[in-house]
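New to this. Please check this record:
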Amino acid sequence: MTEPTPSRLERLALRMTALAERWLPDALPFALLGTLLVAGLALGLQGMAPAKALKSWGDGVWSLAPFSLQMAMVVIGGTVVATAPPVARWVDRLAGLPRTPRQATVLCAVASMTSSWFNWGFGLLFAAVLARALARRVAGLDYRTLAATTLLGLGTVWAQGLSGSAALQMATPGMLAPAIRTIAAGKGPGGAELVPGGIISLEHTIFLWQSLAAVAVEIVVVAALVAAITPLGPRARTAADLGIDLSEPSDDTHDRPHDGPRVPGQWLEHQGWLGRLIGALGLAAVLQQLWQAEHVAAAITLNTVNLTLLALGFWLHKTPARLARAFARATPATWGLLLQFPLYGGIAALITDSKLSERVADWLTAAATPLTYPPLVAAYSALLGVFVPSGGSKWVIEAPYVLAAAHRHRVHLGWMVAVYDLGEAVANLVQPFWMLPVLGLLGLRARDVMGVTWTVALVVAPLVLLLVTALGATLGYPL
């Protein structure tokens, strides 16, 4: 088959991908270097005493321990639900809908974005499972482009959805340091808090009509872009062309009654009623929280999201044995979070305790106006996200000065959380950190898909700057 001739934009993306893979280190060295850089700024620029800086860093290392566990559960829970047999069967039926390669890539892109809005962990794995099913069914489908579409939810709308880290942190008590809550609260006439407790519920972030409009625009634009760049005919390289085996491994998640366990303890592990009962209790607890909340949006926190995923995992996998195996398969994907989040906690503590956040807020205030502040933060968030590829931990670093400057510019604080999220997601299109779990499942390398994701980023980045500017102008202060 003739090798397809790439366009100028594709050639540029491939060159940039090769440079990034050759010269940029993994995410962990960035966290280590970031620790040293912030410590140096705290000591040199802010004049913080070395003993105080050391104590601040040491205390901050474990400040994100609850959040680290919650984010790990997002990854595990999303994976467990996406790989459950009933979901897998539904995915196979969905893969039977498209008839052409272009229809298949657009379907996968839309599925990735919409499912990632509900949960980024589920969306990432769900889209990957769908991509493999599509590649088996649709002839002449370019596997590289198809694989890249599985990442588009994480590169566009995920942070504007129900698992958006920054929005959930702002809405969940105890998920941010008290110093950050104080900054978010602000001070009004007479010293009263402008935002009580510094808590910003989801109705003021992801459920703003402006946020929902931004999500809808991104989905439409990206779907149209994917349709336009999908290689057809001789330009396409299928999974077979790339030497990738799409056959499914034997499914060992189903219990076989005829050779089931005999001892009582093992018998209990394979009883479907037990898992279904616990799953039902979990879903009932979530519904109770939603019913009792003053606003439904205010009740959707990391805890409720994770409880929902856990309950669905029990219900869909039925028996405790099946669920345990699903969790065991999903757990390795969380090691990066558990390793890096303590470092980010230490960085955040140094930034706030040294008043470095106030210095950066001064810079952002001086460099922007109320109209230009949102696009400035979106661009800065995207740039920093290339080097710190974690929306939640990066928000801990950015929140102090982003929110402080928002008060000074008198812009909507909830919208600035959404602005941060929209910018942060773009970074996932240009660096491979969050691509790794999916690429392993699809049998590809980062360089195989980043030409497509870079192409999407070139369109999405200016679109985001336009959206945050135009939609932000319709909102008042403080919420």
